[in-house]
Amino acid sequence: MVDKMASETDTEIDLEYGLDDRPPWLKAILLGLQHVAVMIVPATAVAYIVAGAVGLDAATTAYIVQMVLLFSGLATVVQAYTVGPVGAKLPVVMGTSFTFVGAAATIGVNYGLGAVFGAILVTGWLVEGLIGWQFKRIQKYFPPLVTGLVVVIIGLYLVPAAMDNAAGGAGTEHYGALYNLALAALVLGVAVVLNMFTDGVTRLLSTLIAIGAGYVGAAALTVTGVAPGLVDFGPVGAAAWFAVPQPGRFGFSIQPVPVITFAFLFLVSAMETVGDMSSVTSAEGRTPTDEEFRGGLFTDGLMSSLGGAFGAFPVTSFSQNAGVINFTGVMSRHVVGIAGVMLAVLGLSPKVGAVVTTIPSAVFGGAVLLMAGMVAASGARLITLHTTLDRRNMVILAVSLGLGLGVATTPEALSGLPRAAETFFGEPVIVTALSALLLNTFVPGEQSPLFDDPEVPAGDRDADAVSTD
User: Fold this and answer.
1) Where is the chain membrane-spanning (predicted)?
2) Across 97-119, average pLDDT
3) Which of 4, 36, 325, 400 sees the fewest Cβ atoms within 10 Å?
């Protein structure tokens, strides 16, 4: 089924640059910078949140941020170009996911960061490596209905966080201030206008130009005294020009609860990556091939474990950047490869990274709000291209999205569950993915792996099952 879908091109979007196209160098660099600008703040935010919860000092926090950027960049380059069987040869931007924030913070407080990085080191490659290795056998359990729902919930789940950033950042003194909302609206408006009403380079770089316009506006507000400190270059002066990665800086501790917790989260991360890769290739009107899925999952697991050895949190595919690809029509993996190099350089130079992180939350929020919507829209597109919306599939959509959005918007509803169950079922992606997976598997229908596969006659299915065991 996947191979058939991979050959479909009549439903692709209007691509400016295809998978293997190489834009001119200057344009490619700017397009790569656009990917970096969209993902760098949320990628580093995970490090800041966990460091704050654990109580790390500024220097240690800066080191973790550095490692996050370095391994996000290396993993992105591997995805674009591959190293042996590792990598998908797809434009998949990698970064740290909010999926791991709660567990990393809780385990860091209760068990220490050594237990966090020890669990990452063990479970990253073990879980996602196993899934990638056997993905050809289990891929029938992840049809477009399931992976599309994962993409949709990821996009919808990002919207509240984007709105918090657009308002200035949750918990900040000036949350909801008019100037924050104005900056977010400026970024959103510029991006939409340039994308919808212009052609050429301005459309391709619409998100980057919009972030630049918002940044200029924020600087003006800072200089005029309307919003003092909105753009703060203080951390830039304090940051070092170059820092060397230090393996084992936080030590390693292998303990059962952290290992089991991260094993479940890496399963979710694998489903996110499957969904994001499907979102990327949906621009060509297809789903990824077996080889692409396997290589992408190998990258998730191996680079997460390798990064954990140096003090980086797990890397996974970034949904915002899948949205950028569908929004701009630039699918070139070489552009994403350039973005990966940029991220790796930022990871080796804390001072350069500090400059990028001066982007105000409101500016970032305006861009991510658009990208989150595009992610959800690309997931919906993936579903509608390859799924008949009959009664069965509509019920699966309703139950999966209803439960996922339910725990996302009202997490306190699960407070009566045991702590471990509350943590597990409080993840919207987990709830949506498991609901879609179980319902699609056990309810008879076209995409069910147990029942009505339209490509394999009932008699042949039994024979195939015998021959592959």
Assistant:
1) 28-51, 63-83, 145-163, 175-197, 204-230, 250-268, 335-356, 362-383, 395-417
2) 83
3) 4
